[in-house]
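The authors assume throughout that readers already know how a fold can be written as discrete tokens. Each protein is reduced to its one-letter sequence and a matching series of backbone shape codes. I therefore recommend that a typical entry be quoted early in the introduction. For illustration, here is how one protein appears when written out as sequence plus structure tokens:
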Amino acid sequence: MTAPALSAPKITVANPGWLTAAIMLATIMQVLDTTIANVALPHMAASLGATQEEITWVLTSYIVASAIATPMTGWVADKVGRRMVFMGAIIGFTLTSVLCGLSLGLPEMILFRVFQGIFGAVLIPLAQAVLLDINPREKVGQAMAIYGAGIMVGPIIGPTLGGYLTEVFNWRYVFFINLPIGIVALLGVMAFMPREEIHHRKFDLFGFSMLAIAMGSLQLMLDRGQSEGWFESVEIWLYLGLTISGMWAFVIHCLDNQDAFVDLKMFRDRNFVMGLVFIFIIGMTLFSGLALLPPLLQKLLGYPVIETGLVMAPRGVGTMVSMILVGRLVARFDARGLVLFGLLVTAASLHVMAGFDTQMGSMPIMVSGVMQGFGLGFVFVPLSTLTYATIETKYRADATAFFSLVRNVGSGVGISVVTAVLSRMTTVNHEEIASTLTASAPELRAALPQLMSNSAYYASIADQLVSQQSAMIAYIDNFILMFVFTLAVVPIVFLLRNPKHHAPKA
């Protein structure tokens, strides 16, 4: 029996495998850069003469610039062609990475990080759009598995690689490492990505400006909320007002104009909208966990930077295994069932994490990491397939841009939520535990009898123990919260359509 013929891809390329490899190198380079610089911030602060609060703008400037530039992907790709955009973005991202590594002061570092965020913003959505177009419909699942590997493994290995480069070489090498990767990716795109027809599309300056104000203000609010005391600060209220007013003006403008920056008709597609809601919540879960584990391991359990990376590495192994499996399974089984399976495995991993304690070894961390990486791989790949399964192909560039934007916003919201919960619950737990511990408490007298001598030294030891347990309980509170978020997204699975029965329009 002969195998059924594959459907024709939208774009035919001579070497799709090599083009995919080049695209994924660029994607990994961009995703890696969102986390690799985090661990080097203290070293940057000392070298650039900045305070710890000022140096956080190295991260904030990149995130805000990326959020503003991401929605531009579809328009720029139509205007000058995907090949030119991809090449320009790789060149710009690589060059600004080198300039970041050469920076001698904070202002120029922030300036180069802004441009790095702008150039990097188009790489991920454009990579996804290209992979969708160069693969027949039957192989889209495998293409999304490759794409998902870059998206999910990058943030996992970023802190480890960043810590290693900073300790062994210098913080500047967390930026210089992009140079060889960028050169190889550029050569691959130049050699294997074909030129395509350019669609002249009018630029809607007002619509873009309103969306840029909304997204930039939202990212600033999420990034600076914790340090500014959230809504106790006038600055945060200003960001919230700009976010709401900018988004309101953008939506009204797009509804009233035929040549608006974004065609809102693409949001009529149920799978696409449900996919956006889904990836928003998964973004909260995925990146929140990655944000919580390094400080838990280093500050609370005393792991050094490199050992922290080694303990977290099995999460990446779980992700890679699931990507290999799901890339083959998604063409044979209902993608919704695979997503549901991945959610349940992810929820189970968070249940394991809710049992962490200060006396545990590294095994529970590695086991839960493998489980979570494996589960999220089963979620991300079929979800990407389902999200674009029924949307019209003319909307793909804009759709992938919004998918990437919503995932990033979800991760920003998730990190802000867990950071606020960690800070608040650590304080609350400390007060509650301390209120039950008096010098006459039998448990305390048995564990630390020296307290009866009214020694300040032993009192400080008791306070450190209380602080440690308070923080551990706060981390557990966050893991339970993420567990609830993961289960809350399960009903959305049943609202997604089976792509086998709803083919996209040309």
Q: What stands out?
A: DSSP finds 21 helices and no strands in the chain. The chain has a mean pLDDT of 79.
